[in-house]
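Below is how a single chain appears once it has passed through the pipeline. First comes the sequence as given, then the structure the pipeline wrote out for it. We keep one example in the README because the format questions we get most often are answered faster by looking than by reading.
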Amino acid sequence: MTQPTLTRRGYGGKNALPEPLRTALTLAAAGVPVVPLRAGKAPFGNCPQCAHNACGGRPNMKSAGPCCCPGVCHAWAAATTDPHVLTSRAWMAAWRRAVCVAYHPGAAGLTVVDLDDAAAVDWARETLPVTLTVETTRGEHWIYRGSMPSHNAVLPGVDIKSTMAYARYLGPGTGTMTALPDTVRALAVKEPSTVRPAPRSLSAPARSGGGECPHRTPVFLERGIAMAEQRITAARSTIHATVYGAFLAVLSTHGRCGCLSDTHITRLFTAARAKGETLRHCTDAWNNARTALGL
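Resulting structure:
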């Protein structure tokens, strides 16, 4: 099956339709489920019949549920590709008030890495494979083929939007969409809260071959370590989760080629301990990140 693409074209003969609806119909025709967003770029609220989960389905918009409400009532769960639904009387009332279009990435087989600021964009450019990129108000959306569970704040300024979530449609973007990398999937792996692997040696994993490091230059590694140190140092809350996420990001990029040295690891541990982490916490977070990545 051909993967749907996020393209935007005019909708011939439908100029009387609201602009958001014309965009939505084009996306829906490409297999991308869409839903309108109201002022504030938020989904439309529940109708009176569905308020407070009276309909018995889609509680807190976290599941698809049995609700058959004909309106735009359940955020991402209401997203559809059916043009008859999109142009129905119940939906037209919402389209006339809509300010933009959202889509359900997971239902289209897509994942959006939402980069909320310049630092997050720099991290993505250093860490993630290139893919279709869309500019946002403050950062960028990196869109990959493949779906996964959605997670917020996997790293500072980084959210993952795929299943059970919606993302704003902000235009066709630039570049070519590529497959969802394991690096992104690994970011959504939560650190075990109770059972932890026994501490291992902190030595960097051995390089699989004797050739040149695939990252080409020491500058790339140095920037990665420096960004991880900065991310840990800048954390104001959820320190342990931030440390784990920084370790995971470094290992996902540099953990298999053998370029990490004890000096690099010590720098990361030093940054974490300066934020109040104990040596045991650092060791556990490092080993848990290695386990999550299969190192």
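Residues 106 and 162 are 4 Å apart (CA to CA).

See the next section for the split statistics.
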